[in-house]
Specification:
The chain is of the alpha/beta class. It has a single domain, classed as 5'-nuclease (Rossmann fold). 58% of the residues lie in helices and 12% in strands. The protein has seven helices and five strands. It has a three-stranded parallel sheet with strand order 1-4-5. Strand 4 (113-116), helix 7 and strand 5 (133-136) form a beta-alpha-beta unit. Helix 3 (40-52) packs antiparallel against helix 4 (56-65) and helix 5 (76-91) crosses helix 6 (99-109). It is globular, with a radius of gyration of 15 Å.
Length: 141
């Protein structure tokens, strides 16, 4: 199994144990790689969600749970790449919000496959010529 960066939707499904296929892929991934890899952007999105609805208990549990995960920063190179992606998407009328270009840039800069169920947004980035590798963890291999 290739090293992957988990998109926010996949991490959310793992946390909720919502999709047995996703949960099993995460389990297999952790056995092989000893940790899950997420971005600081995904961390922010999950924290925002729990905080916004006043779920301090769930937030505390989440923050404890991700201690064993690898969290990749949004650094200068990622910011430059994300800015280009975001600009290209806007220029071509294919907006996807700010978080997806940022997460894609982190995956590209770290040469990781992006594990997502939201392939439609990220395929727009691929079609613009960016070397983003995708894998839909909601689908059987």
């Amino acid at each position: 199994m290739e090293q992957s960066l988990l998109d926010t939707d996949i991490l959310s499904e793992i946390l909720k144990a919502k999709n047995p296929l996703v949960v099993e892929r995460a389990r297999q991934y952790q056995v092989e790689h000893e940790h899950l890899t997420i971005s600081a952007i995904t961390l922010m999105e999950i924290v925002k969600g729990f905080h916004q609805v006043g779920r301090a208990d769930a937030l505390k549990k989440f923050l404890a749970h991700i201690q064993s995960s690898k969290v990749l920063a949004f650094d200068q190179l990622c910011a430059e790449t994300a800015g280009r992606i975001y600009g290209d998407l806007d220029r071509t009328g294919q907006t996807v919000g700010r978080a997806d270009p940022m997460i894609a840039a982190i995956a590209i800069q770290h040469k990781l496959t992006l594990a997502t169920g939201n392939t439609e947004h990220y395929q727009r980035i691929q079609k613009l010529g960016y070397p983003l590798k995708l894998e839909n963890w909601r689908e059987a291999k």
